[in-house]
Amino acid sequence: MQANGLDERTNLLVEEYSTSGRLDNITQVMSIHTQYLESFLRSQFYMLRMDGPLPLPYRHYIAIMAAARHQCSYLINMHVDEFLKTGGIAEWLNGLEYIPQRLKNLNEINKLLAHRPWLITKEHIQKLVKTGENNWSLPELVHAVVLLAHYHALIADSLSELEALMERMKRLQEDKEDEEASQEEMATRFEKEKKESLLVISGAFDDEIVSTDVSRYVEDPGFGYKDFARRGEDHLPTFRAQDYTWENHGFSLVNRLYSDIGHLLDEKFRMVYNLTYNTMATHEDVDTTTLRRALFNYVHCMYGIRYDDYDYGEVNQLLERSLKVYIKTVTCYPERTTKRMYDSYWRQFKHSEKVHVNLLLMEARMQAELLYALRAITRHLT
Ligand SMILES: CC(C)C[C@H](N)C(=O)O
């Protein structure tokens, strides 16, 4: 690593350590990508520690509830600590039965957001904002939703084909100039990819044993990303991205209700989307746009989100099966991720490049959750 790259990294870590009093594993792993880490920490700091609609202990309790959905005891312990430090009531840590009704009311949206955000409707929003003394104001609700999405996405616990892959990327870039698929053909390709993504089976099955340290914060623990394949169903509704985009709709709504968070998230999404070192393992000066875009769009595809102008045939050509299994696991069932899965794809790539993949997956998922929640809030308002 270059000397000034190292300096920058050290400075950032020192700063984070002195403002939050710790350097968690996640920050350390992310520090390989300094620019990204900076924008990640900025938005996290804002939602956890700066002035905002929700009181500090609430924020940490919400982080706990989010982390518990994916059984991440690491994040839970961290926020239990912070919850107490910021003046939270210790009794709440006995579990969901001990918290105020108002906070309890978040269980439903936490669950849907985490596993099946496409089921969120304006009725869910209405229920939260219109329940008399236990109601949530819209700014509070947006703050809560942002925290939930942030912590759902963060929970990825673990830590050739190369030439062929690069060849396919090159071909795709060239082909694009001369071949234009029809609208119907493009739509079919998305549906095909979406349907197949439902059939990708992730790691273990759900008879995992969950400790009470975690389960006390979870309502309806059996609720997960819907395994369409196992139930012989294949219907995941399609969300047309151009009808409700982050740039044109989500961003301004979130910014209006919880000032500045829109900018911070927007910067983070852009940062990760555009992040590139123009490398592929040992090769330099490679344009990796198609590959990075395929990773991002594949996550949205698993959540039913479709971009009209994107050809999902590219996903099919660039992402091999073991990578798809990894993506699905990290995105939908992060608690099942294993080191073995992480090692099984892209064997020739550098560790930092695989961390890069994880950052893309994480931000794509966070954005997908937010799109569904914000669309429901917009519908509630109109
Ligand atoms: C995810 C990786 C393939 C990204 C690549 N190393 C780049 O710098 O663009």
Question: What class do helices, strands and sheet pairing give?
Answer: mainly alpha
Low-confidence stretches: none
- Trace the largest sheet across and list its strands: 1-2
Terminal Cα span: 52 Å
Query: Nearest-angstrom radius of gyration?
Result: 21 Å
H/E series = HHHHHHHHHHHHEHHHEHHHH
Enumerate the distinct ligands.
Answer: leucine
Shape: globular
Mean pLDDT: 89
> In oligomeric terms, what are we looking at?
single chain
Number of beta-strand segments:
2
How does the major sheet shape up?
2 strands, parallel
* Helix amount: 55-70%
Number of alpha- plus pi-helical segments: 19
Q: Estimate what percentage of residues fall within beta strands.
A: under 5%
Which secondary structure elements does this structure contain, and how are they paired or packed?
Layout: H1 3-20, H2 25-30, H3 34-49, H4 56-69, H5 73-85, H6 101-104, H7 107-115, H8 122-129, H9 138-154, H10 161-178, H11 183-199, H12 212-215, E1 239-240, H13 246-257, H14 261-274, H15 289-302, E2 305-306, H16 313-318, H17 321-332, H18 339-344, H19 351-381
Parallel strand pairs: 1-2
The protein binds leucine (LEU).
Which features would summarize this protein structure in a list?
binds leucine; 2 strands; 382 residues; 19 helices; 63% helix
Précis, in short:
The protein has 19 helices and two strands. The chain is mostly helical and 382 residues long.
